[in-house]
Amino acid sequence: MSRGFAMLDQMAWESSDDCDLGVLLDDPPDLSESPQSKPSTTDSISEHEFSCHCCYDILVNPTTLTCGHNFCRHCLALWWESSHKNECPECREKWEGFPKINILLRDATDKLFSEVIKRRRGEIQADPKISRSLLSFQRYGDNLGRTRTNQHKGAGFFFSGVLTALTCVTVIILVYHWSSGGVEQQDLLTSKPVSHWTLEEVVSWLEHLGPWAELYRESFQQENVNGRLLLMLGDEELLKPPYSIENPAHRRAVLAELDRVKTLGVKPPQNLWEYKAANAGKSLFLLYALKRSPRLTLFYLYLFDYSETFLPFLHTCCPAMSHIEEQVESTFLRTQLEPSWQQWVEFLVKYSVLPYQLIAEFAWDWLAVHYWTSRFIIVNAMLLSVLECCALWSLWTRAGIRTLPGKMWNHLWKMLSQGFAFALLWPFVPQFVCNCLFYWAIYFSPIINIDLVVQQIMHPETQAL
Q: Where would I find the RING-type domain in this sequence (predicted)?
Protein backbone atom coordinates (compact mmCIF):
# COMPACT_ATOMS: atom_id res chain seq x y z
CA MET A 1 0.00 0.00 0.00
CA SER A 2 2.72 2.41 0.90
CA ARG A 3 4.52 1.76 -2.38
CA GLY A 4 1.28 2.49 -4.32
CA PHE A 5 0.68 5.78 -2.55
CA ALA A 6 4.26 6.78 -3.29
CA MET A 7 3.84 6.08 -7.03
CA LEU A 8 0.58 8.10 -7.19
CA ASP A 9 2.22 10.99 -5.39
CA GLN A 10 5.12 11.02 -7.85
CA MET A 11 2.74 11.00 -10.85
CA ALA A 12 0.80 13.92 -9.40
CA TRP A 13 4.01 16.01 -9.00
CA GLU A 14 5.08 15.19 -12.62
CA SER A 15 1.67 16.17 -14.03
CA SER A 16 1.69 19.47 -12.17
CA ASP A 17 5.15 20.27 -13.49
CA ASP A 18 3.98 19.53 -17.04
CA CYS A 19 1.00 21.82 -16.60
CA ASP A 20 3.09 24.70 -15.28
CA LEU A 21 5.62 24.31 -18.06
CA GLY A 22 2.80 24.18 -20.60
CA VAL A 23 1.27 27.34 -19.30
CA LEU A 24 4.65 29.11 -19.51
CA LEU A 25 5.20 27.87 -23.07
CA ASP A 26 1.62 28.50 -24.30
CA ASP A 27 1.30 31.99 -22.77
CA PRO A 28 4.70 33.67 -22.88
CA PRO A 29 4.89 37.17 -21.39
CA ASP A 30 4.33 40.06 -23.78
CA LEU A 31 7.71 41.70 -23.91
CA SER A 32 6.48 44.27 -26.41
CA GLU A 33 4.28 45.89 -23.78
CA SER A 34 4.60 49.69 -23.84
CA PRO A 35 6.68 51.38 -21.08
CA GLN A 36 3.68 53.46 -20.09
CA SER A 37 1.94 50.36 -18.76
CA LYS A 38 4.76 50.03 -16.12
CA PRO A 39 6.30 53.39 -15.13
CA SER A 40 10.07 53.65 -14.94
CA THR A 41 11.67 54.33 -11.54
CA THR A 42 14.02 56.96 -12.92
CA ASP A 43 11.25 58.89 -14.64
CA SER A 44 9.16 58.98 -11.49
CA ILE A 45 12.03 60.61 -9.48
CA SER A 46 12.18 64.38 -9.54
CA GLU A 47 15.47 66.29 -9.34
CA HIS A 48 13.89 68.52 -6.75
CA GLU A 49 13.88 65.62 -4.32
CA PHE A 50 17.68 65.39 -4.57
CA SER A 51 18.46 69.12 -4.57
CA CYS A 52 20.28 71.12 -1.92
CA HIS A 53 18.28 73.91 -0.30
CA CYS A 54 21.35 76.15 -0.26
CA CYS A 55 22.50 76.02 -3.89
CA TYR A 56 19.27 74.50 -5.35
CA ASP A 57 21.28 72.00 -7.39
CA ILE A 58 21.85 68.24 -7.21
CA LEU A 59 23.39 67.21 -3.87
CA VAL A 60 27.15 66.63 -3.95
CA ASN A 61 28.45 64.62 -0.99
CA PRO A 62 25.09 65.03 0.76
CA THR A 63 25.44 65.63 4.49
CA THR A 64 22.52 64.90 6.78
CA LEU A 65 22.05 66.97 9.94
CA THR A 66 20.35 65.83 13.11
CA CYS A 67 17.20 67.71 12.10
CA GLY A 68 16.93 65.52 8.96
CA HIS A 69 17.75 68.14 6.32
CA ASN A 70 20.36 67.38 3.66
CA PHE A 71 22.85 69.80 2.14
CA CYS A 72 25.89 69.66 -0.08
CA ARG A 73 28.94 69.32 2.12
CA HIS A 74 30.64 72.36 0.62
CA CYS A 75 27.46 74.40 1.07
CA LEU A 76 27.35 73.41 4.73
CA ALA A 77 31.06 74.28 5.12
CA LEU A 78 30.54 77.72 3.57
CA TRP A 79 27.55 78.33 5.84
CA TRP A 80 29.51 77.27 8.93
CA GLU A 81 32.48 79.47 8.02
CA SER A 82 30.38 82.57 7.38
CA SER A 83 27.87 82.25 10.23
CA HIS A 84 30.16 80.67 12.89
CA LYS A 85 27.14 78.69 14.11
CA ASN A 86 26.44 74.97 14.46
CA GLU A 87 22.89 75.14 13.18
CA CYS A 88 20.86 74.05 10.16
CA PRO A 89 20.76 76.68 7.39
CA GLU A 90 17.06 75.95 6.83
CA CYS A 91 15.38 75.37 10.20
CA ARG A 92 18.12 76.86 12.45
CA GLU A 93 18.18 73.78 14.70
CA LYS A 94 21.59 73.16 16.20
CA TRP A 95 23.26 69.96 15.11
CA GLU A 96 24.93 67.56 17.50
CA GLY A 97 28.49 66.35 17.03
CA PHE A 98 30.09 66.69 13.61
CA PRO A 99 27.92 66.10 10.48
CA LYS A 100 28.86 63.10 8.35
CA ILE A 101 28.26 62.34 4.68
CA ASN A 102 25.12 60.27 4.01
CA ILE A 103 26.70 57.38 2.08
CA LEU A 104 23.40 55.84 0.90
CA LEU A 105 22.14 59.15 -0.45
CA ARG A 106 25.51 59.90 -2.04
CA ASP A 107 25.57 56.57 -3.90
CA ALA A 108 22.00 57.15 -5.10
CA THR A 109 22.74 60.61 -6.52
CA ASP A 110 25.97 59.35 -8.12
CA LYS A 111 24.01 56.65 -10.02
CA LEU A 112 20.96 58.72 -10.95
CA PHE A 113 22.74 61.96 -11.88
CA SER A 114 26.27 60.85 -12.73
CA GLU A 115 26.94 63.52 -15.37
CA VAL A 116 25.68 66.38 -13.20
CA ILE A 117 27.65 65.15 -10.20
CA LYS A 118 30.82 64.84 -12.26
CA ARG A 119 30.44 68.37 -13.59
CA ARG A 120 29.72 69.87 -10.16
CA ARG A 121 32.65 68.12 -8.51
CA GLY A 122 34.99 69.60 -11.10
CA GLU A 123 33.63 73.07 -10.40
CA ILE A 124 34.04 72.58 -6.64
CA GLN A 125 37.64 71.43 -6.97
CA ALA A 126 38.47 74.41 -9.17
CA ASP A 127 37.17 76.93 -6.61
CA PRO A 128 39.91 77.71 -4.00
CA LYS A 129 37.45 79.36 -1.61
CA ILE A 130 35.32 76.21 -1.42
CA SER A 131 38.41 74.01 -0.99
CA ARG A 132 39.62 76.20 1.88
CA SER A 133 36.22 76.11 3.56
CA LEU A 134 36.02 72.33 3.27
CA LEU A 135 39.51 71.97 4.73
CA SER A 136 38.68 74.29 7.62
CA PHE A 137 35.41 72.45 8.27
CA GLN A 138 37.13 69.07 8.31
CA ARG A 139 39.87 70.29 10.64
CA TYR A 140 37.24 71.65 12.98
CA GLY A 141 35.69 68.19 13.02
CA ASP A 142 39.07 66.58 13.69
CA ASN A 143 39.70 68.91 16.64
CA LEU A 144 36.21 68.23 17.94
CA GLY A 145 36.86 64.51 17.73
CA ARG A 146 40.14 64.81 19.62
CA THR A 147 38.44 66.86 22.30
CA ARG A 148 35.75 64.23 22.77
CA THR A 149 38.38 61.51 22.88
CA ASN A 150 40.07 63.25 25.79
CA GLN A 151 36.79 63.54 27.70
CA HIS A 152 36.87 59.90 28.74
CA LYS A 153 39.76 60.69 31.05
CA GLY A 154 37.23 62.29 33.37
CA ALA A 155 37.68 64.01 36.69
CA GLY A 156 40.75 61.98 37.59
CA PHE A 157 42.72 63.53 34.74
CA PHE A 158 41.52 67.02 35.70
CA PHE A 159 42.48 66.73 39.35
CA SER A 160 45.78 65.13 38.40
CA GLY A 161 46.62 68.14 36.24
CA VAL A 162 45.59 70.57 38.95
CA LEU A 163 47.70 68.71 41.51
CA THR A 164 50.70 68.72 39.20
CA ALA A 165 50.38 72.42 38.53
CA LEU A 166 50.05 73.30 42.21
CA THR A 167 53.03 71.12 43.04
CA CYS A 168 55.19 72.88 40.46
CA VAL A 169 54.13 76.30 41.72
CA THR A 170 54.84 75.27 45.31
CA VAL A 171 58.30 74.00 44.36
CA ILE A 172 59.12 77.28 42.66
CA ILE A 173 57.98 79.30 45.68
CA LEU A 174 59.99 77.16 48.09
CA VAL A 175 63.11 77.25 45.91
CA TYR A 176 62.79 80.98 45.61
CA HIS A 177 62.50 81.55 49.37
CA TRP A 178 65.26 79.06 50.20
CA SER A 179 67.73 80.60 47.75
CA SER A 180 66.97 84.28 48.33
CA GLY A 181 68.79 85.11 51.51
CA GLY A 182 69.89 88.52 50.17
CA VAL A 183 66.44 89.27 48.78
CA GLU A 184 64.90 88.89 52.22
CA GLN A 185 67.01 91.81 53.45
CA GLN A 186 65.95 93.91 50.45
CA ASP A 187 62.31 93.05 51.04
CA LEU A 188 62.80 94.12 54.63
CA LEU A 189 64.05 97.55 53.53
CA THR A 190 61.04 98.02 51.24
CA SER A 191 58.77 97.75 54.29
CA LYS A 192 60.99 99.04 57.11
CA PRO A 193 60.75 102.79 57.85
CA VAL A 194 63.88 104.77 56.98
CA SER A 195 64.19 106.20 60.49
CA HIS A 196 64.78 102.65 61.79
CA TRP A 197 67.54 101.76 59.33
CA THR A 198 70.89 100.62 60.75
CA LEU A 199 74.32 101.50 59.40
CA GLU A 200 74.49 98.27 57.39
CA GLU A 201 71.11 98.96 55.81
CA VAL A 202 72.10 102.50 54.84
CA VAL A 203 75.29 101.19 53.23
CA SER A 204 73.23 98.56 51.39
CA TRP A 205 70.91 101.30 50.10
CA LEU A 206 73.91 103.35 48.96
CA GLU A 207 75.45 100.43 47.07
CA HIS A 208 72.27 99.93 45.06
CA LEU A 209 72.58 103.46 43.63
CA GLY A 210 75.32 102.30 41.28
CA PRO A 211 79.01 101.39 41.06
CA TRP A 212 79.96 105.04 41.49
CA ALA A 213 78.52 105.01 45.03
CA GLU A 214 81.39 102.78 46.19
CA LEU A 215 83.55 105.94 46.35
CA TYR A 216 81.55 107.21 49.33
CA ARG A 217 80.88 104.01 51.22
CA GLU A 218 83.83 104.41 53.60
CA SER A 219 82.87 107.94 54.60
CA PHE A 220 79.31 106.82 55.44
CA GLN A 221 80.70 103.99 57.56
CA GLN A 222 83.11 106.26 59.42
CA GLU A 223 80.30 108.64 60.33
CA ASN A 224 77.98 105.79 61.40
CA VAL A 225 75.16 107.11 59.22
CA ASN A 226 71.91 105.43 60.25
CA GLY A 227 68.41 106.08 59.03
CA ARG A 228 67.77 109.19 61.16
CA LEU A 229 71.05 110.83 60.17
CA LEU A 230 70.44 109.95 56.53
CA LEU A 231 67.15 111.86 56.54
CA MET A 232 68.95 115.01 57.80
CA LEU A 233 71.54 115.10 55.01
CA GLY A 234 71.24 117.84 52.41
CA ASP A 235 73.21 119.36 49.57
CA GLU A 236 75.56 121.31 51.84
CA GLU A 237 76.28 118.35 54.15
CA LEU A 238 77.11 116.08 51.21
CA LEU A 239 79.43 118.66 49.65
CA LYS A 240 81.46 119.25 52.80
CA PRO A 241 83.74 116.75 54.59
CA PRO A 242 83.56 114.02 55.72
CA TYR A 243 81.32 113.04 52.79
CA SER A 244 82.99 115.27 50.20
CA ILE A 245 80.75 114.40 47.26
CA GLU A 246 82.18 117.05 44.96
CA ASN A 247 80.88 115.54 41.73
CA PRO A 248 77.60 117.45 41.09
CA ALA A 249 76.06 114.54 39.15
CA HIS A 250 76.77 112.13 42.02
CA ARG A 251 75.39 114.61 44.53
CA ARG A 252 72.21 115.13 42.48
CA ALA A 253 71.75 111.36 42.28
CA VAL A 254 72.08 110.88 46.06
CA LEU A 255 69.71 113.78 46.76
CA ALA A 256 67.16 112.47 44.26
CA GLU A 257 67.16 109.05 45.90
CA LEU A 258 66.95 110.69 49.33
CA ASP A 259 63.86 112.61 48.22
CA ARG A 260 62.24 109.37 47.10
CA VAL A 261 63.07 107.73 50.43
CA LYS A 262 61.62 110.68 52.36
CA THR A 263 58.46 110.65 50.23
CA LEU A 264 57.87 106.90 50.42
CA GLY A 265 59.17 106.43 53.96
CA VAL A 266 60.85 103.17 52.90
CA LYS A 267 63.39 102.00 50.34
CA PRO A 268 61.92 102.25 46.81
CA PRO A 269 61.79 98.90 44.97
CA GLN A 270 64.65 98.36 42.54
CA ASN A 271 63.85 94.95 41.05
CA LEU A 272 60.88 92.69 40.37
CA TRP A 273 60.86 90.93 43.73
CA GLU A 274 61.15 94.17 45.69
CA TYR A 275 58.33 95.68 43.63
CA LYS A 276 56.21 92.59 44.29
CA ALA A 277 56.93 92.81 48.05
CA ALA A 278 56.00 96.49 48.17
CA ASN A 279 53.03 96.31 45.74
CA ALA A 280 51.69 92.77 45.87
CA GLY A 281 48.25 93.49 44.44
CA LYS A 282 49.44 95.96 41.83
CA SER A 283 52.18 93.65 40.58
CA LEU A 284 49.74 90.77 40.12
CA PHE A 285 47.24 93.05 38.38
CA LEU A 286 49.87 94.43 35.99
CA LEU A 287 51.24 90.97 35.25
CA TYR A 288 47.89 89.61 34.07
CA ALA A 289 46.67 92.88 32.52
CA LEU A 290 49.80 93.31 30.39
CA LYS A 291 49.36 89.74 29.16
CA ARG A 292 45.64 90.07 28.35
CA SER A 293 45.51 93.67 27.11
CA PRO A 294 48.88 95.46 26.91
CA ARG A 295 47.55 98.55 25.14
CA LEU A 296 44.82 99.26 27.68
CA THR A 297 47.21 98.59 30.56
CA LEU A 298 49.87 100.97 29.26
CA PHE A 299 47.22 103.61 28.72
CA TYR A 300 46.08 103.09 32.31
CA LEU A 301 49.66 103.57 33.53
CA TYR A 302 49.94 106.75 31.47
CA LEU A 303 46.82 108.19 33.09
CA PHE A 304 47.20 107.08 36.70
CA ASP A 305 50.84 106.05 37.29
CA TYR A 306 52.85 108.32 35.02
CA SER A 307 55.99 109.19 36.99
CA GLU A 308 56.45 106.02 39.04
CA THR A 309 55.84 103.33 36.41
CA PHE A 310 55.09 104.70 32.94
CA LEU A 311 58.11 106.98 32.55
CA PRO A 312 60.66 104.34 33.63
CA PHE A 313 58.97 101.84 31.31
CA LEU A 314 59.12 104.24 28.34
CA HIS A 315 62.76 105.23 28.96
CA THR A 316 63.75 101.57 29.24
CA CYS A 317 61.98 100.44 26.05
CA CYS A 318 62.76 103.57 24.02
CA PRO A 319 65.98 105.01 25.46
CA ALA A 320 67.09 108.51 24.53
CA MET A 321 70.14 108.92 22.32
CA SER A 322 72.72 110.65 24.48
CA HIS A 323 76.46 110.73 24.87
CA ILE A 324 78.14 108.70 27.60
CA GLU A 325 79.52 111.76 29.39
CA GLU A 326 76.04 113.30 29.50
CA GLN A 327 74.38 110.30 31.14
CA VAL A 328 73.05 110.78 34.64
CA GLU A 329 74.42 108.36 37.23
CA SER A 330 71.07 107.91 38.95
CA THR A 331 68.64 105.58 37.23
CA PHE A 332 65.78 107.40 38.88
CA LEU A 333 66.88 110.80 37.52
CA ARG A 334 67.36 109.37 34.05
CA THR A 335 63.88 107.88 34.01
CA GLN A 336 62.20 111.05 35.29
CA LEU A 337 63.23 113.16 32.31
CA GLU A 338 60.46 114.04 29.88
CA PRO A 339 60.75 111.87 26.75
CA SER A 340 61.80 113.50 23.50
CA TRP A 341 59.55 113.49 20.46
CA GLN A 342 61.71 110.74 18.92
CA GLN A 343 61.06 108.56 21.97
CA TRP A 344 57.33 109.25 21.77
CA VAL A 345 57.21 108.34 18.07
CA GLU A 346 59.10 105.10 18.64
CA PHE A 347 56.92 104.23 21.61
CA LEU A 348 53.62 104.95 19.81
CA VAL A 349 54.62 102.85 16.79
CA LYS A 350 55.51 99.89 18.97
CA TYR A 351 52.44 100.50 21.14
CA SER A 352 50.12 100.33 18.13
CA VAL A 353 51.74 97.50 16.15
CA LEU A 354 53.66 95.25 18.55
CA PRO A 355 52.89 96.11 22.19
CA TYR A 356 54.35 92.85 23.45
CA GLN A 357 57.71 93.90 22.00
CA LEU A 358 57.76 96.72 24.56
CA ILE A 359 57.39 94.16 27.34
CA ALA A 360 60.17 92.03 25.84
CA GLU A 361 62.51 95.03 25.60
CA PHE A 362 61.76 96.00 29.19
CA ALA A 363 62.56 92.46 30.37
CA TRP A 364 65.72 92.41 28.23
CA ASP A 365 67.04 95.42 30.12
CA TRP A 366 66.74 93.43 33.36
CA LEU A 367 68.61 90.32 32.21
CA ALA A 368 71.54 91.03 34.53
CA VAL A 369 69.23 91.23 37.55
CA HIS A 370 66.65 88.53 36.71
CA TYR A 371 68.42 86.01 34.50
CA TRP A 372 65.80 83.28 34.05
CA THR A 373 62.69 85.30 34.85
CA SER A 374 63.48 87.85 32.14
CA ARG A 375 63.93 85.06 29.61
CA PHE A 376 60.57 83.55 30.49
CA ILE A 377 58.92 86.95 30.04
CA ILE A 378 60.64 87.53 26.69
CA VAL A 379 59.58 84.11 25.35
CA ASN A 380 56.02 84.68 26.54
CA ALA A 381 55.91 88.11 24.88
CA MET A 382 57.05 86.59 21.57
CA LEU A 383 54.40 83.87 21.76
CA LEU A 384 51.67 86.38 22.57
CA SER A 385 52.73 88.48 19.57
CA VAL A 386 52.39 85.43 17.32
CA LEU A 387 48.94 84.64 18.72
CA GLU A 388 47.80 88.23 18.18
CA CYS A 389 49.02 88.19 14.58
CA CYS A 390 47.22 84.88 13.97
CA ALA A 391 43.99 86.34 15.35
CA LEU A 392 44.24 89.40 13.09
CA TRP A 393 45.06 87.22 10.08
CA SER A 394 42.05 85.04 10.82
CA LEU A 395 39.80 88.11 10.93
CA TRP A 396 41.26 89.35 7.65
CA THR A 397 40.91 86.07 5.75
CA ARG A 398 37.39 85.49 7.05
CA ALA A 399 36.34 89.02 6.13
CA GLY A 400 35.69 89.74 9.79
CA ILE A 401 37.59 93.05 9.98
CA ARG A 402 34.28 94.90 10.06
CA THR A 403 33.54 93.17 13.35
CA LEU A 404 36.78 94.45 14.90
CA PRO A 405 35.24 97.60 16.51
CA GLY A 406 32.60 95.48 18.21
CA LYS A 407 35.21 93.03 19.45
CA MET A 408 37.33 95.90 20.78
CA TRP A 409 34.38 97.35 22.65
CA ASN A 410 33.55 93.95 24.17
CA HIS A 411 37.19 93.51 25.15
CA LEU A 412 37.25 96.95 26.80
CA TRP A 413 34.13 96.21 28.77
CA LYS A 414 35.46 92.80 29.81
CA MET A 415 38.78 94.21 31.01
CA LEU A 416 37.09 97.00 32.98
CA SER A 417 34.73 94.58 34.69
CA GLN A 418 37.57 92.18 35.53
CA GLY A 419 39.70 95.01 36.91
CA PHE A 420 36.84 96.22 39.08
CA ALA A 421 36.21 92.69 40.37
CA PHE A 422 39.92 92.28 41.13
CA ALA A 423 39.96 95.52 43.13
CA LEU A 424 36.99 94.30 45.20
CA LEU A 425 38.21 90.76 45.83
CA TRP A 426 41.92 91.46 46.31
CA PRO A 427 41.81 92.12 50.10
CA PHE A 428 40.13 88.74 50.68
CA VAL A 429 42.55 86.57 48.64
CA PRO A 430 45.20 84.72 50.72
CA GLN A 431 48.80 85.67 50.03
CA PHE A 432 49.71 82.08 49.18
CA VAL A 433 47.09 82.02 46.42
CA CYS A 434 48.40 85.33 45.06
CA ASN A 435 51.94 83.95 44.98
CA CYS A 436 50.74 80.86 43.11
CA LEU A 437 48.96 83.02 40.53
CA PHE A 438 51.98 85.29 40.20
CA TYR A 439 54.47 82.50 39.57
CA TRP A 440 52.01 80.67 37.33
CA ALA A 441 51.67 83.71 35.08
CA ILE A 442 55.45 84.12 34.81
CA TYR A 443 56.73 80.56 34.47
CA PHE A 444 53.84 78.40 33.22
CA SER A 445 52.00 80.76 30.91
CA PRO A 446 54.71 80.41 28.21
CA ILE A 447 54.23 76.64 28.21
CA ILE A 448 50.50 77.03 27.58
CA ASN A 449 51.10 79.64 24.87
CA ILE A 450 53.57 77.34 23.11
CA ASP A 451 50.78 74.78 22.72
CA LEU A 452 48.42 77.46 21.39
CA VAL A 453 50.98 78.66 18.86
CA VAL A 454 51.60 75.10 17.65
CA GLN A 455 47.88 74.63 17.14
CA GLN A 456 47.67 77.86 15.15
CA ILE A 457 50.61 76.86 12.95
CA MET A 458 49.34 73.32 12.38
CA HIS A 459 45.74 74.41 11.81
CA PRO A 460 45.82 78.06 10.74
CA GLU A 461 42.30 78.03 9.33
CA THR A 462 40.61 76.23 12.19
CA GLN A 463 38.49 78.32 14.51
CA ALA A 464 36.77 76.63 17.42
CA LEU A 465 33.21 77.73 18.05
A: 52-92
Q: What is the dihedral of CA 313, 314, 316, 318, to 10 degrees?
A: 160
**Total domains present in the chain:** 3
φ, ψ for residue 71, nearest 5 deg? -140, 155
Tell me, rounded to whole angstroms, the distance of Cα 19 from its chain centroid. Answer: 86
At 252, which CATH number?
1.10.150.50
Burial class of 390 by CB neighbour count within 10 A (0 to 12, 13 to 18, 19+): middle
Residues 313 and 453 in one domain: yes
259-276 confidence digits (pLDDT tens)? 888 888 888 887 888 888
The reply to whether 95 and 72 lie within a common domain is yes
Tell me the per-residue pLDDT of 287-332, one tens digit each, with 9 for 90 and over.
889 988 999 999 999 999 888 889 989 988 988 765 444 444 566 6
CA distance 449 to 169: 17
242 falls within a domain: yes
Q: How far apart are CA 69 and CA 235, in angstroms?
A: 87
Beta strands in 19-127 (DSSP E): 62-64, 70-72, 100-101
Distance between CA atoms of 453 and 465, rounded to whole angstroms? Answer: 18
pTM attached to this predicted model: 0.60
- Quick one: 102 and 225 in the same domain? no
Three-state secondary-structure class, residue 164: helix
* DSSP-assigned states of every residue in 357-369: HHHHHHHHTTTTT
- Could you tell me if 212 and 345 lie in one domain? no
* Same domain? 352 vs 290: yes
- Phi and psi angles of residue 58, each rounded to the nearest 5 degrees, phi first: -60, 140
With a cut of 80, say whether residue 453 has pLDDT above it. Answer: yes
